[in-house]
Amino acid sequence: MRVMVTGAAGMLGKAVTAEYISRGMEVIALRRDELDITEFDRVRDVIRAREPDIVVNCAAYTNVDGAESERRRAFLTNGLGPRNLAASCRALGAVLVHISTDYIFDGSKKDPYGIYDVPHPLNIYGSSKLWGERALKEIACPCYIVRTSWLFGPGGNNFVANMIKLGKAKGKASVVNDQSGSPTFTVDLARAIADLSGSGCYGTYHITNQGSTTWYDFAKEIYDMCGLAVNLSSCDSAALARPARRPAYSILDPFPLEETIGYLLPSWEKALARYLEMIKKQGVLI
Question: What are the boundaries of the signal sequence (predicted)?
Answer without folding.
Answer: none
